[in-house]
Amino acid sequence: MPSTPLFDPRAFFTERNPSLRGAAAILYFAGIAPVSTGAIATGGFGPADVTGWLLLLAVLVGAAGGAVVIWTVYAVGIYLATAVAGGTGSFTRTAANVGWSLLPLLLGNVVTSLARWGVYLSGRLSGEGSVRFPSWLDGLSLVVAVGCYLWIGYLLVYAIEDARDVSVQHATVIAAIVALVSVLVSVGISL
């Protein structure tokens, strides 16, 4: 079985040269999934009018913007933290590996977005003009997010080790900090 970043990250990052283009695609699609649920709250996807097209454009641009911000914060933060630990690899390789390590974010966003769309299409949402999702769905989204950030932390250990040529111990500490901060931010946003 070929190595994948999800289940055999050490082999994946060691045997392959993850591309920036692939990392960008992962983050772009990870951004589209949650942004698309904004159409539910705004009442989009009704008749094909200017509002629908503007909403589609906002989803596409918003996803790109979100991807750039997330990727930049993670890549720069990890690059600087590993510099303190004596890391020697390039920023380009770091950015590519970090992007590929965020693949669980794409999976988690797809799962929670499908759940939100499922609830919406079932007709079980309440609220006129302002849509409110059931609290269990918010809880599910939080559990999925926490799980994804812990999974990302695991992938980052080997992404950092490969990209910056630091020990697994140093990479683990940095990845754990990144995962912990991500979980805390996710929990804070949910409250």
UniProtKB/TrEMBL annotation:
Transmembrane segments: 20-41, 53-86, 98-119, 139-159, 171-189
Cell compartments where the protein resides: Membrane
Bilayer topology annotation: Multi-pass membrane protein
UniProtKB keywords: Membrane, Transmembrane, Transmembrane helix
Cellular-component GO terms for this entry: membrane
Main localisation: membrane
InterPro entries attached to this UniProt entry: Yip1_dom (IPR006977)
Domain Yip1, chain residue ranges per copy: 6-187
Pfam families hit by this protein: Yip1
Protein name per UniProt: YIP1 family protein
Source lineage: Archaea, Methanobacteriati, Methanobacteriota, Stenosarchaea group, Halobacteria
